[in-house]
Amino acid sequence: MGILKELVGESQKGLDFQEYCYQHIILDDKTPYNVLNRSFMKEIVEAVFSHPHITISKGAQTGFSTLFLAHGLYMVDILGANLIYYLPTDKMAVRFGQTRFDPYVQRSKYIQSRLMGTDQAGLKQIGTHFFYMLGLVSKTGAISIPADEVLFDEVALINRENMELAQDRILASKLGWQRYFSAPLFEEDGIDELYRESDMRKWLVICKGCRRESIVEEEFPDNVRDERKKKGKIYLACPKCEKPLDVDNAGWVPEHPERTQRGYRAPQLIIKNTRLDLIWDRWLKVQGKPAKLARFRRSVLGIADSGNMQPITGKVLELVEASSNYHFQDRSDEVCAMGIDMGDRAHAAVVAPLGEEGFRIIAAFHVDVEDLLNLIPVWEEAYNLGALIIDAMPYKTESKRVVRALKEAVGFIQYFKSTYKETTEGEDEKEVRVIHVDRDESLDDTTSLFSINPPQALLFKPRNTDEEKALDEVKRHLKKLVKEETAGPDGQKKISYKKNVENHYGMAINSARIALVFRKIRYAGRGLTGITVVGRNAVADINW
Q1: What are phi and psi of 262, to 5 degrees?
Q2: How many domains does the chain have?
Q3: Are residues 178 and 319 in the same domain?
Q4: Whole-model pTM above 0.70?
Q5: Does 444 map to a domain?
Q6: CA-CA distance, 301 to 291, in Å (whole number)?
Q7: 224-255 pLDDT, tens per residue?
């Protein structure tokens, strides 16, 4: 035991978390970390050491990365847990280790004494247990390592499918804790989706004058008073009695107390000494600028706002559902079209015509890829399929088999290319039709049909719990057809639909819409070559 202490130092077991932070976590400004220096932190700190599942939708610079780094060190060092700290990418995980983890170690002789000789960027051994820092850009970061607790930072940027795989790391642990924290991005996606699944706690401020209760981020900007021209200051005021609000005179209140998962929304406004003058000046500057206004709401208020980067929102789908008056269909006498998005699971959508350019989603399935080939003849007959489009990748061989299995319907394997093109692959009995479509333009055409008024893309109503689950998944995937700013091959900035997100039904519906247009062209003849198929500038000119 003496040799072990000499090698790794002596653990200070019995030290509580607050004292551990004050003694051993030194902040960038060289001051000790007082973990309870903000009133809203007290309940959260207690929860992270007692509650199995916690989600925090936070404003920027609200202190949660520091809290969870300190929490992680304490869990591994004092409580003897193995912990994984996940970030969106390997690069971000390495940078986190270098710029956040390592400086805290360097500023504490005690933590240095407890750190073993592992020099890997994503693995630190403290005493006899391990602190991992891993990226989740792919499924490889989610496998092989058992843990007692998993922490997900920057959740808004992490693929939820990979995150769910990473949850398997804690299955063998008696503890099995999960923590999710991030500034929000898109509505009902990422951290906002998790927060909405929780009990949704909000910081309720009580006015000392009239006792009115306020959720300050929801009443912003109407609760701000700017008296700088009168040599005063900017402050949050009670909308009823106009007296200044003390954001520490408050407590966490759940919107859904019946739910077991704990969730908090922590905006910058609930920090006692936040720079409200800077916040207000920034607010004034972003007026009339949707993208910057959305960024402000996310980073300051902790409220998800997609600006114009999420074409299909929850509100859009509410209007779609209000306009939809039909149920999930097991078959159709009307000629329909199908789109299939390929992956570890195949997601298939069946659509029927609606007016000149619209469509009704009448059925949706997700199945194991190995079962797909046997289902194609069944679906073709049941839904009277006229056309089918399936992703070429990632299982091109299987996609080609699906197309060749069609008896009457016209089938294509699909590639995303910048220029529209119709061609073939293979020879003789192996030949299949191929279509190249512009991904962003085709998705714009699909999403616009949901958002116009009245909607020209409708959703089925479920008849049972299985169909209700299918509908919920369809809606969730449609909301994940979100955009991001990227750099094109020429270095110019462009807005593109985000890749590697859980939008499988959205992609299947997009392919089904294109297939439906082809079906219309086929039955109408070459006289309809002006119908838009895959983008505003691409028109079909097909020889059938």
Answers
A1: -90, 135
A2: 2
A3: no
A4: yes
A5: yes
A6: 15
A7: 999 988 888 999 999 999 999 999 999 999 99
